[in-house]
Write a structure and sequence with these properties.
4 strands, alpha+beta, about 130 residues, 2 domains, single chain
Length: about 130
């Protein structure tokens, strides 16, 4: 009886004689060195049954994470007439007098712009946030 397995590099199906089981050989297709499994590998591993409660829990947690992400991205509390940023994120100028509430609004606006792939505007808002970073 032949040992049948697949090359881990190219995926080609290989049939090898029982005598080469447990040794190293070369794939006839891609010539990479590979291990030929022994024919006495025994019976298949028995897997534990899938726990439906774990699947439901994972699904519920993923839905909750998605909902929270969407809530953050849809935050509407953004200041009117946001001032223009100084072009670059790395600002060497003085830290602007921005309240914690305004800074939070800038961060929310930045996250929304990034989520919407509006990178130019997000870069501009990042210029307003950067002077407040440590």
């Amino acid at each position: 009886m032949a040992i049948i397995f697949h090359c881990e590099y190219c995926g080609k199906k290989i049939e090898a004689a029982d005598s080469v089981g447990g040794k190293w050989g070369k794939c006839p297709a891609c010539h990479n060195k590979l291990y030929v499994p022994s024919s006495d590998s025994g019976e298949e591993l028995k897997l534990a049954p899938i726990d439906e409660t774990d699947l439901e829990r994972e699904k519920r947690l993923m839905a909750e994470a998605h909902k929270l992400t969407q809530d953050i991205l849809k935050e509407k509390d953004i200041p009117e007439g946001v001032p223009e940023a100084i072009g670059h994120i790395e600002t060497a100028g003085p830290v602007l007098d921005t309240s914690e509430r305004e800074l939070t609004k800038y961060i929310i606006m930045y996250l929304r712009l990034m989520a919407d792939s509006e990178l130019y505007e997000a870069h501009r808002i990042a210029g307003l946030i950067a002077p407040h970073s440590v």
